[in-house]
Amino acid sequence: MLFMRLYNDQDHFPEVDAVKTPGDLFYVALENDALTGYCQFRLGANTVYILSLRDHGDLLTGDGLLRSVMFYAFSSGIDRAHFSEFIDMTKYASHGYHLSYERYIESIDGFLGNCVEHKTGSGTEKKDCS
Hints:
The radius of gyration is 15 Å and the shape is globular. The chain has a six-stranded mixed sheet, covered by helices on one side. A two-stranded antiparallel sheet has the order 7-8. It is built from three helices and eight strands; from the N terminus they run E-H-E-E-E-H-E-E-H-E-E. The protein has helices spanning 14-17, 59-75, 108-113; strands spanning 2-6, 25-31, 34-43, 48-54, 81-83, 104-105, 116-119, 125-128. Mean pLDDT is 85; it is low at 116-130. It is α+β, with helices and mostly antiparallel strands. The chain has a single domain, classed as Gcn5-related N-acetyltransferase (GNAT) (Aminopeptidase, 3-Layer(aba) Sandwich), CATH 3.40.630. Helix 2 links the parallel strand 4 (48-54) and strand 5.
């Protein structure tokens, strides 16, 4: 089962440790305690700076990591996200990521608010985040 959470001081993943610098935060994706992806970021006064993303070719993992980071930032009072030029965001356009020319999402709240729950014919809830 895939699980995403903040990287903590007890974690030791060589792939993350190799790029970590002071002040960086990470969300990690784990499957059976094995690292399947990560997102490196920093919190600014009004903006979360998304520095790198490794999804190992799985767009759903990458999308989940990005949304986790943005939700974390929004929960910390930040409503703007900037994406490093080192992240190829074109492959995420089908998941709703349409950045400004300067590589920003101006409203995390607006972006995440586009993810709407609705009932399916079977009565189960489904999220539409496109």
